[in-house]
Amino acid sequence: MDDQTSILKDQLYVACEDACSHDPEKLFSQEDLMGLNVVPPKDVKKLLQIIQLLTKERLFVPVHFHNGLFWRVRSESDAAKYKHLTSEDQVLVYEIIDSAGAEGAWQQDIKRRLNLQDNALRKALKELEAKRFIQQFTTVENMTKKMWIKFNMQPSARATGGPWYTDQYLDEAFIDALQTVVVRIVKERGSYRSTGERNGRSVSPVLPKKGVIRGGLSDAALKSKKRTADAISRDETAPVLPPVSKVRGTVRIPLPAGYTGYPTAEEITKELVRVARGQPLKVEHVQELIDILVWENRIEEIKVGDRVGYRATRISKQNADSAKLDSEDFWESRTNGLTTAPCGKCPVFELCEEGGPVWAGGCEYFDQWLS
């Protein structure tokens, strides 16, 4: 290797390291390497020569895809470990474990790929482990599998189960606790809590029949079908309706359309990190909790523009039969189309008639309701 090739080799490796500063797993194609402007333009032969040298020195790792050949950069410290391997079996076994990364390599898979005898494989693994190049670990998917990974490398979340597993067992209590916190955060930021009196009944009040007024009337008046407006105006006794019980407490009211303050997965994660101290929670972990809550219909996704937030679903969408009207989780009283109309809540419904003091054609509340 001449001096020019050696210099170009070192320059190309440094350029690749700089390009991987933000993405350590970045792959380089032949066009990418040529685009680093280290090798003279259109000198493909020189580029291939340099790639072969870097691959031989274990500084480049070839990666085969269906659309061509790519290369991954290996650090100089990791490449230097190959010089300490004393047998071809050690080199081949370590290369497979090294390429497996944080996912690790299954012992039976190594045996199948290299077609090694059990004694030879166990000897190579034992020597690599003694040199502190590799270590054994178990996965949550199958704890009986013998998995191997590079020494001092943390297994991936897929292998260990992430923060949801403790000692390789699913921590259901921890998951339930975090889900409760997520629902609380979503409720607090995704609804308005109103305090005051509200109707505590779950059914409509039983009102007297239309045209019959109660309170201080004679039996003859009660037997009449309906009185005239003049007769009503001369009546000194105000109508008495059945008592309506009032319940004091809190009720959650949905926020108006277009509201943009619903908490996102990123914002929920910041809240949970303060609660779950010591656990490396990331956005993707919290998103898993949110997806489960959405699937259980406890919260729902709200999109406003490019922002994706979450709010608690109404109890009627969850399990209205088990809901209590006095619960602060209850959004609003059970209603239907008739009870939301002015007539359904009108306190003088019995007085309403054509030409009377109250009638539908001149009801100002109808105009508000229909507008």
Report what the structure shows.
- This protein is of the alpha+beta class.
- The chain folds into three domains: 3-78, Arc Repressor Mutant, subunit A (Orthogonal Bundle), CATH 1.10.10; 85-160, Winged helix-like DNA-binding domain superfamily/Winged helix DNA-binding domain (Arc Repressor Mutant, subunit A, Orthogonal Bundle), CATH 1.10.10; 174-207 and 242-334, no CATH class.
- Helices cover 40% and strands 16% of the residues.
- Helix 5 (88-100) crosses helix 7 and helix 12 (265-275) crosses helix 13.
- The protein is elongated, with a radius of gyration of 37 Å.
- The relative contact order is 0.07.
* Quaternary assembly: single chain
Biggest sheet record: 3 strands, antiparallel
Counting helices, strands and paired strands, the structural category is alpha+beta
What low-confidence regions span 5 or more consecutive residues with pLDDT below 50?
Answer: 198-227, 231-248, 322-326
Please tally the helical runs, counting DSSP H or I stretches of 4 or more residues: 17
Taken from the alpha-carbon principal axes, the silhouette is: elongated
Q: Mean of the pLDDT scores?
A: 75
Helix content: 40-55%
- The N- to C-terminal Cα distance equals 87 Å
Number of E-type strands: 12
